[in-house]
Write a structure and sequence with these properties.
The protein has 453 residues and is α/β, with parallel strands linked by helices. It has three domains: 228 residues, Alpha-Beta Complex (2-enoyl-CoA Hydratase, Chain A, domain 1); 123 residues; 60 residues, OB fold (Dihydrolipoamide Acetyltransferase, E2P) (Beta Barrel). It is built from 15 helices and 17 strands. The strands form four sheets. A seven-stranded mixed sheet has the order 1-12-2-3-4-6-9. A five-stranded mixed barrel has the order 13-14-15-17-16. The chain has a three-stranded mixed sheet with strand order 5-7-8. Strand 16 and strand 17 form a beta hairpin.
């Protein structure tokens, strides 16, 4: 398990190079948004699709989730490939991010790419319900223009992390309120945090300098649409999978699922679906944890807790190690991430799920596996064993090298270390009596009385 977690952590630099090349490829292969057939009054052939050389192109780049290494590479590569000589008139970053998971130096690289781009860069916070928080708010200030959709928010930027000598003082005057507060769309416009209120990305685009537009009449209403070709770009599917894994709740749950399934697989015969799914989940979860600000000691505590409960799982009986391991796992879960934390629902699912597995699911599975008729459990009847803990009236005994849950079928308690004899088997529980000096069973007493009469 530790090796797979390490593999997930080691995947970070590999994915960084992969996303760089994939991001560049995707930026060059963006999809054109369908445009009206009346694409411009100066075009001779109105039925043919417009080209960048004729009417210009505008790239809309989706930046969703935490700004991690994947998104940072994608934004930088896209802006590097956007050149006015190729007909690109602007780039719009469609932003919905709760913050930056990269360090300050990497954030500065993204800001530099925005500020030094060959074409104007605008940031639109949308669609409705989107947010821009943490240090990504400073990126909004660095952009040439910005807009926000209704229902979206911006703020809680914290102290400026971008170098003032390079980028100037950001969020000054009335806009400084966004350092400590989260503002709604209209509040952000009024405070000067964003430039304008843009209900949709289309309305934001038509308001940008350099974008050619025309007016169409539909259902008696006139509206402006871009003649400039609009191209939307997003992360490739495989890279998007790793980007999703780098969100706190997903990374945590993948880590827990991976550890739980591998723990289950460890105590079953052979390698099955659970082992494969567990390994994949653990690699993805390890990658996500590596991408996020984390506490190393908490990660060690979480993994160590799973190892600790395995000590008791192999006995089929939850005991002290199960309690210790579950406590370690819980503490590690709560303090795993230092900045972006999983939701409480995700934490409860992970902690409660692991507790159910440890105290119910795994012990039952282990006892069932090693207590089937195929290994002759009926031969235990009459065998002698040792009480590992007091059987008063229930406890744990060791018979023929295996640990079993046991109970006395008589009144005589059996202390820890005492010798026991197996009388019968009730499901997965052995009925035992002391090797010597056991109290007489009421059924035997009744049999003796009837014979004497």
């Amino acid at each position: 398990m530790l090796a797979l977690v390490a593999l997930g952590l080691a995947a970070v630099p590999l994915l960084g190079g992969l996303t760089g090349s994939a991001g560049a490829a995707d930026a060059s292969g963006v999809q054109d948004e369908p445009v009206p057939t009346t694409t411009g009054p100066d075009r001779a052939d109105r039925d043919a699709p417009a080209t960048c050389e004729e009417v210009g192109c505008l790239d809309v780049v989706a930046v969703d989730g935490l700004l991690d290494e994947i998104e940072a590479d994608f934004v930088i590569d896209t802006l590097a490939g956007a050149r006015a000589a190729d007909g690109v008139v602007a780039v719009v970053l469609q932003l919905d991010s709760a913050g930056a998971a990269v360090d300050d130096a990497r954030l500065a690289q993204v800001a530099t790419a925005i500020a030094s781009a060959d074409v104007p860069v605008s940031i639109w916070i949308g669609p409705s319900g989107a947010t821009a928080r943490g240090s990504v708010v400073d990126l909004v200030q660095v952009a040439d223009s910005s807009g926000i959709s209704p229902g979206s928010t911006i703020g809680d930027a914290g102290p400026q992390v971008l170098d003032p000598e390079q980028f100037g003082d950001l969020l000054v005057g009335g806009a400084s309120v966004a350092r400590t507060e989260v503002l709604g769309a209209q509040e952000a416009v009024d405070a000067g945090v964003v430039d304008r209120f843009s209900p949709t990305v289309l309305e934001h685009i038509v308001g940008l300098e350099g974008v050619r537009t025309e007016t169409l009449t539909e259902d008696g209403q006139r509206r402006q649409v871009p003649v400039t070709v609009v191209r939307f770009s997003k992360l490739p599917l495989l890279i998007q999978l790793f980007h999703t894994a780098a969100s706190p709740s997903v990374a945590y749950l993948l880590l827990v699922v991976g550890l739980g399934l591998l723990l289950f697989e460890f105590f079953t015969a052979g390698v099955g679906v659970a082992g494969v799914v567990g390994a994949i989940s653990l690699v993805l979860g390890g990658y996500g944890v590596a991408e996020l600000p984390r506490a190393g000691w908490a990660l060690a505590l979480l993994v160590g807790g799973v190892v600790a409960v395995a000590v008791d799982v192999q006995t089929g009986i939850p005991r002290a190690w199960s309690i210790i391991g579950t406590t370690m796992f819980t503490i590690g879960s709560v303090f795993l991430f230092t900045e972006f934390r999983p939701t409480w629902i995700a934490l409860l699912v992970g902690i409660i799920g692991m507790a159910v597995v440890v105290f119910s699911g795994m012990p039952a599975m282990v006892r069932t596996r090693f207590a089937t008729p195929t290994i002759g459990r009926e031969q235990l009847v009459g065998e002698l064993g040792t009480a590992i803990e007091g059987v008063e009236p229930e406890g744990t005994v060791q018979v023929l090298g295996g640990l079993w849950r046991a109970r006395t079928n008589r009144a005589t308690p059996i202390p820890a270390g005492g010798r026991v004899r197996v009388l019968s088997i009730d499901g997965l529980v052995l009925e035992v009596e002391p090797e010597e000096g056991g109290a007489m069973d009421y059924r035997e007493m009744r049999g003796r009385r009837s014979r004497s009469e």
